[in-house]
Specification:
Blueprint lengths: L1 H11 L7 H12 L3 H26 L3 H25 L8 H21 L3 H6 L4 H10 L1 H10 L3 H8 L6 H8 L10 H8 L6 H5 L1
Length: 206
């Protein structure tokens, strides 16, 4: 947050506040007293999406400084996501049904909020464009649909690995259009991470 805020402030002279949908999600995560919900919310959902988003951003830009900064952030985010997966890998498989349902509901709502972030109403407003019309276009545009799906490329396989891609969660993610990566197998990457010291996670992220 600090490195991107400084880049925007010093190089671009333009910053946006946190989007309402992301703020809503962060408030839910930070006020929930259950330790696994904090890991699920931050390490799996929020930082999982961030990891994919930063990877896409790094490939889309040719500005040297932002590429270098983003590569460093990616290495850090990869450690966070791996830590979350390893910490939660045995938590949900035998969880009582009523407790598991709470986690399913959270995953569904968190996914919706993170998808809505990228409708970018604050950007359209800043540009003086009709917000509702632009949001509808962003929701239905094939390029944006594929972009949003790619943002979930780290989240969906890890939800499946944790036992949270359930019969309730799968159709909800399908409706959101972000289920494409459910069959990606993270086993090889995470098995390697389990045996690595923290300093070596950066290479695995690459």
């Amino acid at each position: 947050v600090e490195v991107y805020e400084r880049y925007l402030r010093e190089k671009m002279n333009l910053t946006y506040p946190v989007t309402p949908s992301l703020k809503q999600l962060l408030d839910v995560i930070l006020t929930d007293g259950r330790w696994d919900m904090k890991y699920l919310g931050m390490q799996i959902m929020v930082e999982g999406l961030a990891l994919a988003a930063f990877g896409i951003m790094r490939e889309m830009t040719d500005e040297p400084l932002i590429r270098e900064l983003t590569a460093s952030v990616i290495r850090d985010e990869a450690r966070h996501v791996a830590f979350g997966v390893l910490s939660l890998k045995d938590v949900y498989h035998d969880m009582p049904r009523n407790e598991l349902r709470d986690r399913e509901d959270f995953v569904i709502e968190a996914s919706r909020l993170m998808r809505d972030r990228f409708l970018a109403p604050e950007v359209w407003a800043k540009a003086g464009l009709p917000v509702e019309e632009c949001c509808r276009y962003a929701l239905d545009c094939p390029l944006m649909i594929q972009f949003r799906c790619m943002l979930f490329s780290k989240i969906v396989p890890n939800l499946k690995r944790l036992g949270l891609l359930t019969d309730r969660v799968r159709p909800a993610l399908q409706e959101l259009g972000v289920l494409e990566f459910e069959h990606v197998d993270p086993d090889a990457e995470l098995t390697a991470l389990e045996n690595m010291p923290a300093a070596a996670y950066a290479d695995a992220a690459e």
